[in-house]
Inverse folding.
């Protein structure tokens, strides 16, 4: 063998004795999971060394700890193994990145959307130049604009200035000026121009969604989505910030990858709608604060250090070309305002989309993810915080946890008598693991059937072959090896339960702290946003005590509210001021500084509803 050959991709790369297997796979563009960004924490980058020209290096202590008996079957951690000779490496099914389920749907906005885009077409007739009175092209254009529309001396983008003379002399009767915010002419075309488009983006840590909108009708023309390619350089915000600190070119690498991703979505959406991308004359962008900084090339390192201060907070306008975004040559991109280091414009957009800031009743909004952003309030007052829930809601740190992609169990039922399990997987593929909603569903069902008790420990009384001792202590078999895609039993371990307890306690404690500060009694409405939140069964959420003061009929999934908020800001420029007011009015609570949060966190670890179900068994 002359190189490292990856199966089943049939791709060969050169070993160099310096780069680990994960780095080689990523450089070759292979879909290998790396939830912790190669920090030897997550254990998701398992590969199998099937053949080797020489003896592979001795496994590290970390590999022994994570892989246990799998080492004997040739398994290694790709991020902890460096080869200096040829080998055949298999990337097993469970370590491959899969097609992610990306939430592109949204809820109806509770208030009518007014179509008031920030760019518009203005048709006008500009008198030709005459010999006896020399008035420059620009002046004649500005005079015509003033007399026809009352628009006073807007600026002209340099590109527009270049095409001005030819456009005015094209022989057509009139011209169409495309004007941004009544302040700047960003395009000029001979004759009447129809077709005016904008694109709204929601840049998430995991997924990116782009909505192509017709700015003349307000219709959604195309929706495209994809995984955020920055995942190759770290699965979560903190690992990407570390990547910027460790690699001198890290920030530019991350920026270049998200720019390419956004440009791909623009090209795909334009192709589907059969329009020219140069007719997209404005875009809006929302995202968490780190994604915002990485998109525009701002140093994100201080976001991960107390007091977690962002570089800026107000909404910003950038020329698309300055960011490398391929839409109209002179078009602008508007980024909605940020609130704090861990409360970004995606949260502001969620508030905008759900109308929480206009609500008469106290409403709790939770966007579940590695950081659970929580907002509580009504039209008078809003509080927000961000809880470091950890990666459990996205499948991280869970033995068989995975992202919401093909083969992930998304919900299940356990027979209370036989303990047999019925499951549903994404795209109906053979079970490969559990995504966030599947983990919550599994643990909720285990509580309802008496398998998991109040403290999170497994019942000692239930006798079943499914409940057994495993490598990490007690475990419950959800799917037998014969039925899984991995050929291993798919289990929930005692350690997995502890991970979920930490995650749900963080959310519960954060929400409870906001409730205490808000005062004024009972929450009357709970909105769950984002991919994980939107797929969780409200009964499961209440069973695991994820939400304080919970009644299932008060809990509603609100889809990709952040994406919807981005669309609103694109269609109605007044929503941008509304977003600024929301950001200014919402009080941010830093949980790291709140000793009460620690008390609540510890006391929220129990599954109190287990007591109700235990009586049944
Ligand atoms: S353990 Fe290797 S990427 Fe996380």
């Amino acid at each position: 063998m002359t190189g490292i050959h990856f199966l089943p991709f049939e791709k060969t790369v050169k070993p160099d004795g310096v780069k680990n297997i994960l780095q080689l796979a990523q450089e070759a563009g292979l879909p290998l999971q790396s939830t912790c960004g190669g920090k030897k924490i997550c254990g998701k980058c398992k590969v199998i060394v099937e053949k080797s020209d020489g003896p592979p290096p001795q496994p590290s202590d970390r590999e022994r700890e994570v892989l246990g008996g799998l080492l004997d079957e040739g398994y290694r951690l790709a991020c902890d193994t460096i080869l200096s000779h040829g080998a055949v490496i298999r990337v097993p099914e469970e370590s491959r990145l899969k097609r992610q389920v990306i939430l592109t749907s949204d809820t109806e906005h509770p208030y009518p959307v007014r179509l008031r885009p920030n760019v518009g077409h203005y048709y006008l007739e500009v008198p030709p130049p005459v010999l006896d009175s020399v008035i420059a092209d620009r002046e004649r254009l500005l005079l015509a604009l003033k007399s026809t529309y009352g628009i006073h001396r807007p600026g002209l983008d340099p590109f527009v200035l270049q095409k001005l003379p030819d456009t005015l002399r094209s022989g057509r009767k009139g011209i169409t000026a495309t004007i941004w915010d009544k302040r700047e002419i960003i395009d000029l075309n001979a004759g009447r121009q129809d077709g005016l488009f904008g694109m709204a983006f929601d840049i998430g840590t995991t997924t990116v969604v782009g909505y192509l909108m017709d700015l003349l009708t307000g219709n959604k023309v195309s929706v495209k989505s994809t995984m955020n390619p920055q995942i190759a350089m770290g699965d979560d915000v903190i690992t990407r910030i570390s990547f910027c600190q460790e690699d001198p070119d890290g920030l530019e690498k991350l920026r270049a990858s998200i720019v390419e991703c956004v440009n791909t979505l623009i090209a795909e959406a334009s192709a589907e709608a059969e329009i020219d991308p140069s007719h997209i004359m404005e875009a809006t962008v929302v995202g968490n604060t780190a994604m915002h900084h990485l998109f525009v090339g701002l140093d994100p390192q201080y976001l991960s250090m107390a007091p977690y201060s962002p570089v800026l907070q107000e909404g910003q306008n950038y020329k698309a070309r300055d960011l490398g975004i391929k839409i109209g040559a002179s078009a602008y991109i508007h980024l909605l305002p940020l609130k704090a280091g861990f409360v970004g414009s995606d949260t502001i957009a969620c508030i905008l989309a759900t109308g929480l800031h206009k609500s008469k009743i106290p409403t709790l909004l939770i966007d579940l993810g590695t950081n659970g952003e929580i907002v509580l309030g009504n039209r008078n007052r809003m509080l927000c915080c961000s809880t470091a829930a950890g990666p459990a809601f996205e499948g991280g740190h869970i033995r068989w946890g995975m992202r919401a992609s093909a083969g992930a169990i998304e919900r299940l039922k356990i027979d209370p008598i036989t303990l047999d399990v019925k499951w549903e997987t994404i795209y109906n593929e053979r079970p490969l693991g559990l995504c966030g909603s599947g983990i919550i569903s599994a643990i909720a069902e285990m509580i309802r059937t008496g398998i998991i008790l109040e403290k999170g420990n497994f019942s000692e009384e239930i006798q079943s072959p499914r409940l057994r001792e495993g490598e990490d202590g007690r475990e419950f078999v959800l799917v037998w090896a014969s039925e899984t895609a991995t050929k291993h039993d798919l289990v929930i371990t005692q350690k997995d339960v502890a991970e979920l307890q930490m995650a749900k306690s963080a959310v519960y404690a954060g929400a409870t702290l906001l409730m205490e500060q808000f005062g004024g009694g009972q929450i009357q409405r709970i909105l769950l946003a984002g991919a994980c939140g939107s797929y969780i069964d409200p009964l499961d959420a209440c069973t695991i005590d994820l939400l304080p003061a919970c009644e299932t009929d008060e809990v509603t999934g609100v889809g990709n509210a952040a994406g919807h908020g981005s669309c609103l800001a694109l269609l109605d420029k007044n929503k941008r001021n509304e977003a600024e007011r929301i950001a200014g009015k919402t009080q941010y609570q830093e949980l790291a500084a709140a000793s009460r949060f620690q008390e609540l966190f510890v006391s929220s670890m129990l599954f109190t509803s287990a007591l109700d179900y235990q009586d049944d068994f």
Q: What stands out?
A: The chain has a mean pLDDT of 90. Residues 119-190 form a domain with the Ubiquitin-like (UB roll) fold (CATH 3.10.20.880). The longest helix spans residues 494-518.
